[in-house]
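Z., the sequence and structure:
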Amino acid sequence: MRENPCILIIYATFGDGHVQAAESIRQSFAALGIGRVHLVDLFAEAHPNLNAISRKTYLLSSAYFPRLYGFSYDFTNRLRPDPMYSRLFHSVGRRKLREIVDRLKPDAVIHTFPYLAMAELSERLALGIPTFTVLTDYVLHSRWVHPDTDRYYVATEGLKRSLAASGIADDRIAVSGIPIRGVFSQRLDRDSACSELGLDPARKYALVSAGAYGVQGHLNKMVRTLLEHSDCDVLLVCGKNRNLLRKMETAFAGEPRVHAMGFVERMEAWMAIAWCLITKAGAMTLTEAISQSLPVIVYRPLPGQERGNAQVLSDLGAVLTARHSEELRECLRTLHSQTARTKLTDAMSGLHVPGSSDRIASDILRKLSAVKHPHADWGRRTASQAVSLSRTN
């Protein structure tokens, strides 16, 4: 390993979790004195127009056509990880990646999105660059699986078993937890957080998060159920969806117990004051709540990975799940029981892996210390390899 290794992290902006994980890992490398860490949204760089269309389609389908999205997720999950379709999927953007690799000459490449282009490129050209994949969900999809990934980092022991069952050697899988921002490494004082956010510490607050892009449906009914069946004020976070914010402000105009907001910073402070969190089943938000031992109700989880996240964590006793308003009322009754809340927080404590991004960064550096410098033999690559690559893009 070089004295100052270069790290390339490949992410995607289909939801904020993948880029948040990438940024958390970058910060951990920086704390270890590794400054040459490059974050690349490969799909956006390789195919900007297609990326924009795909992101829009993803947001619209998950919000308005969730069954169609779920069908697509389940269908692609049934495909084995090694047939032609999977190879083709991971090859998208390979030419752009080759340009980036030639320019940066990274010592390691990390994926935080199931678009494992580097593993595919390295296998085809025998580059010898170690590749690492950080799973940012609690459930496995076949797109995360590539036989040439050197090491996987996963959230739970159960996910490790699922990955091993897909053919990945057990010693190539580490249970690291999902990397979240360093601000969640400790818990804030509730009174101080209330003072910072201008809220009354004597009030009880339910934090409702629609996600970074505000794609949570059925918010109106959810909020009215909270008002009718709890004594909580509702902190309603609508994310970056300004249209959703306007609709919620209109729907609850004159209701003093509802505080509608757009995208908020300092989510750790909002979580510190909350009695519970009601949210979609994005793995990053759930992991942040778990780190704070904040009871969570997942409301109407979307088909696909979010439903899988909710199912896994519900089975482990770490979250409550409500599919409709009647079940939401039952979940609220459950949370009023201190015994039930203690069971939830105990399950969260059992799942929480502190310092996940630090663990991942340190482990990767240890792995690199035993690896021959991958670029030593680049000059001997044959012209036929380069021609082969150009023909397959």
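The longest helix spans residues 48-64. The chain has two domains: 7-177+354-391, 186-351.

Let me know what you think.
H.
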